[in-house]
Amino acid sequence: MPTVKNWQLGREMAYPYEAKYPARQFAFVFNTNRCIACQTCTMACKSTWTFSRGQELMWWNNVETKPYGGYPQNWDAKILSMLDRQNPGGQVWDAQAEGGPYGVFRGKTIFEAAQTSARPEGARVLGYLPTDEEWRFPNIYEDVARETGTAEPAPRSYPQRAELPEHATWFFYLQRLCNHCTYPACLAACPRKAIYKRKEDGIVLIDQERCRGYRRCVEACPYKKPMFRSTTRVSEKCIACYPRVTGQDPLTEGQPMETRCMTSCVGKIRIQGLVEIGEDGAWAREPQNPIYFLVHEAKVGLPLYPQLGTSPNGYYIPPRWAPRPYLRQMFGPGVDHALEAYAAPSRELLAVLSLVRATQRIIHRFEIQEGPKVFEREINGRPWAMYNDTIIGFDKRGHEIVRTTVEEPIHVREARHANSI
């Protein structure tokens, strides 16, 4: 099996195909601290793409409550358990080793574990097919909390106080869609070669003409985002609203636009973009690209289960109140730095976070105009100050598309009537 460089793992890994990379890669960052689980993103995606017969249980975008919720149920616990059985005690990170931004992962990926497991002949990826029962409840265990130190859901009365850095009783919302991975497990597993990454933006698609519904992609994807449609007997998945990303929506006059789930986000947790990819598959340095900045400069955006080896292009700012061990197994050893940086954001990070959901267009570059100091205090024993800087976002042509300030402006309306609001 060929080897490819996985920068998230800090090392080379086995993958069924030679490495090929798009010119730019579709990527996104979600701030889990802001999500209110309103499911507006879920319904926006559903009403756009999966409203037809045979798609009733297809939720390309979903928001689930961790640690107990999942769609399909236990999707992450199952694949992590399978990997641990293949490599008992070996699924560990060496956070001190040089090689990647989070250290080096010493364990086995789903591609490497498949070579030593008792899988069917020709199986390239370690995975499993969810049962019909596991697909039936997309919102199971919503808002069910866990008490730290136990494996059972917390009682309905919560006597412990909710205090940072870790709440005694906790849950958080995890927003999910296809990660459009650099090394997709679905693509690796498909015997028909019906799955491909677009050269222009790295979006992963399924060729509906070539697909024969073998469901190898459903079995292989550790995130379980390809889904089988019984009426057409083929698999379907999130397409990243690529007509919008390529600028085909008339609202933006030919400029790249964010996806339906992104633009409908009420909690303002989502930002997406396109990052330039180098010849070795790593991101080319673009410190003024907001996605690059959040992932590689501020390092607050972390990949979801990077140890699986797919190099996902979906990134998350972890929730501040959840137990650190749980977050580390989900997002890797970069969690501690990410939470520290987010709790006391730098002047530049605070400005970039203000761009989240500030426009429906994709921001390719930002600039910051410094403003006055408006607030100061101590955070974790250190002085911290907030400045009312202005941040400006530009499209791929260099045209300004958004301008906002760190402090939200207050508009006082004149009361013209006794019951004016």
Explain what you see.
The strands form 9 sheets. A 4-stranded mixed β-sheet has the order 14-3-16-15. A 3-stranded antiparallel β-sheet has the order 17-20-21, covered by helices on one side. It has a two-stranded antiparallel sheet with strand order 1-2. The model has no long low-confidence stretch (mean pLDDT 93). It starts with a strand and ends in a 16-residue tail after the last strand. A hairpin with a 5-residue loop joins β20 and β21. It has helices at 40-49, 75-86, 110-114, 132-135, 185-189, 216-220, 242-245, 260-263, 290-297, 324-331, 335-343, 347-353, and strands at residues 3-6, 11-14, 24-31, 62-66, 93-94, 104-105, 146-147, 169-170, 172-176, 195-197, 204-206, 227-229, 234-236, 270-276, 302-303, 314-317, 365-369, 373-379, 382-387, 390-394, 400-405. It folds into 2 domains: 3-338, 2-Layer Sandwich (Alpha-Beta Plaits); 347-405, no CATH class. With 421 residues, it is of the alpha+beta class. The chain is 19% helix and 21% strand. It has 12 helices and 21 strands. The protein is globular, with a radius of gyration of 22 Å.
